[in-house]
Amino acid sequence: MxxxxxxxxxxxxxxxxxxxxxxxxxxVLHDEGGPGECLVRAGELLAHPAVADSVxxxxxxRADSAELALPGEAVRIRLRPQAxxxxxxxxxxxxxxGDTVFVQxxxxxxxxxxxxxxxxxxxTGTVPTPAELPPAPPTELWEPPVTVALLDTGLDPHPxxxxxxxLSEWGLSAETLHPDQPAARDRQAGxxxxxxxxxLQHAPGVTIxxxxxxxxxxxxxxxxxxxxxxxxxxIARARNEKLDIVVITAGxxxxxxxxPPLLRRAxxxxxxxxxxxSAGNNASARPFWPAASPQVIAVAATGHRDQLAPxxxxxxxxxxxxxxxxxxxxxxxxxxxxxxxxxETVTREYGAAKxxxxxxxxxxxxxxxxxxxxxxxxxxxxxxxxSNSFGG
Length: 392
Prior knowledge:
The chain is α/β, with parallel strands linked by helices.
C-alpha cells in the first residue's frame, strides 16, 4: 500500500494557484483574498450562441476570435492580451439583470483532494512502503443494473475491476501517469481509479460508466464538466441504458457565489440520474459548484469520531457528510525500469493508497444510494434516506 502525506490543513486558493501555475499557464486568480476569489481560464469568455455576435461587437478590439465550445450551448470567445486577465469583469460588464442568456468566464474546477494532500509512494524514506492490498470487493453484478457514471480522471484495469464486464463496455480511459518521479507526478494521477474503488467497496454490484472530465493535474472547467454531463446521458440513451447516479469530484467557486450558467443549464438537463458531488476541501462555507446546486447532493467529509474534517467545506448548502479522511482504496502508479525510457520500459503497478478529501466521501454516499436503488427504493426516497444516514 502506498501511504499518503498527512497534511490535513486546507490550502488557501492563492497557494493552490501558485502550485498549479506550472501546469496551467492560463490560470487567473480573481480577487485574491477577497469575497469574490475564484479561478478562471485566462483570455476566455463563454457566451450563449444567441448573443455571441453581439458580445463580439461590444468587446471590439478586446476580442480576438470566437469558436464553438459546446454545440447549442456556448461559444468560446478568445480575448486579446490586454484583456487576458479580465474575463470576470468583462462578463459582469456584458451581463444585465434578468438576462435569460449568458456571458460568463470559464471557471477552473479543482479536483477535491488537491488541497489536502496527494498519495505518495513513500513512508519515511525514499523507498516505497510495501503492504498488502486490502481485500477486493466481491465480484458481483446487480440485475437489474444500477448504473453509476464517474466524471473523473482515468480508470485503469486494476485487479479489483479487471474482470468486471462493465470495464471495457464504454471504452477504457487509462490514467495519465508519470513514471517513478514523485516530484513531477501530477497531484491527482490515479484519482479516478481510487474513486471507483471506494464506490465498489461499498456497492460491489454497481455498473460503472466512466467519463474523463478531470486532468491528472486536478483541473477541469465549466465547458468540460457540462459536456461530460451531456455525454454520459447521450451514451446511456444510445445504449438504451438507465443512468441512475452521476458522481462529480471537482468543483469551483465563482465571483458572485452563483452557479456558472453553463453548468446550471447542464444540470437542469440532467433530470433522471441523481447527481452527487464533492463539497470541496478549503474549509469554507462559500458555495462550491456544482455541489451547491439545489438538485445536487453535496457531500462534505468527516474524519475521526464522525466529526467534520478540518479541510472540508461546510454550510447550509451541504446535504450530507460521509467518511473522507485516511480512506484506503485502489491505486495505480507507473514505474520506469532501468536501461531505457521507451514506453516498453514502463509498467503499471497496482496496489492501494491512503488519501483524504471530499472526493472520497462522495462515492461513499453514491454507494449508499446505489444499494437503496438496488433494493427497490424509489430515487426520491433514497435521496432523503442518505441525507439522514451519515454524521457530520
